[in-house]
Amino acid sequence: MIYQISVALIAVAFAVLVFFLIRTLKSAQGSLDNVSKTLQEVQKTIDELSYEVKQTVRHANDITVDVQHKMKQIDPVMESVQNLGEVLNEVTEAAKQVSTTMIAKFQTKRSNQDPQNKRAEVAKVQTTPATPTDRTLQSYQATYNDTAKGGKNWVKYIDLAANVWQRMRK
What we know:
Helix content is about 90%, strand content about 0%. It has helices at about 1-115, 115-125, 130-145, 150-170. α1 (about 1-115) runs parallel beside α3 and α1 (about 1-115) packs across α4 (about 150-170).
């Protein structure tokens, strides 16, 4: 009889265990179904997004090609601007040289009238100029103060050019 009761208890325990296992498996199956649905939705969303991303990349590539084409068209304009800048720089340098010459000429006229300024100018010529502008002034003074080389003729031409320039500006 103990065997029969033991077998009956084992059968009842097994039935309870099977019942709870079935409930657990059904719960797990529900969870897996939810996961499966979620994965299907995620897959659908990824497919839609990948299509949109591909379109965006194509559009970006088109824009890049268009920008590169326009940049190639602008290159000659940029080169022209660069050349214009160089020309303006040269014109500025020429105007600077003319104005420097004019200043040197007026200073030499004053120094010829005032003997003290002449001494100061001799002192200036003897010192080594520190900047390129000072060296330029010194070279112009040396050139235009030398009357044996026809420096006075150049001064007249520069005066004439400065007068023409001033009249053109007005």
